[in-house]
Amino acid sequence: MQFGRIYGIGLIVLGIALCVLQFVQYMAPPKKEVSPARTETRAVTTTEYVTSSLPGIVGAGSLVAGIALFATARRKESEIQSQVKRIQESPTLHHWCPEE
Predict the structure, then answer these.
(1) pLDDT computed for residue 43 by the predictor
(2) How many separate domains does the chain show?
(3) Interatomic CA distance for residues 46 and 86, integer angstroms
(4) Does residue 25 belong to any structural domain of this protein?
(5) Across 86-91, average pLDDT
(6) b or e along 40-62 (b: 16 or more beta carbons within 10 Å of the residue's beta carbon)?
(7) Is residue 57 part of a domain?
(8) Enclosing domain of residue 73
(9) In this structure, are residues 20 and 29 in contact, taking their beta carbons and an 8 Å threshold?
(10) Which of 9, 21, 70, 92 would suit a FRET pair with 77, their CA atoms being 20 to 30 Å apart?
(11) What integer pLDDT is reported at residue 13 of this predicted model?
(12) What would the pLDDT profile of 11-67 be if each residue is shown by its tens digit?
């Protein structure tokens, strides 16, 4: 019964964490490698970092999936509870048991 709620919350937390990671990667200034002065034998080199948008895409997808899973699990749980309540209150339930 709690499957959808627990996994839904887990996916929401994972999605938020990945979106925050993508935001931090995007906002971080590009780093450049410090190298010695240019000489005849050694040239100045710089390092360029390429950022990937994969954490943001996966994070957004897991966030949406987590919200959907949580919402549908909650709805199904309330439907099941209402059905159980109707069955318990039903007068035909007493006719199932044989009288002794």
Answers:
(1) 60
(2) 1
(3) 72
(4) yes
(5) 70
(6) eeeeeeeeeeeeeeebbebbeeb
(7) yes
(8) 3-32+51-90
(9) no
(10) 92
(11) 96
(12) 999 999 999 999 998 888 776 655 555 555 656 566 666 678 899 999 999 999 999
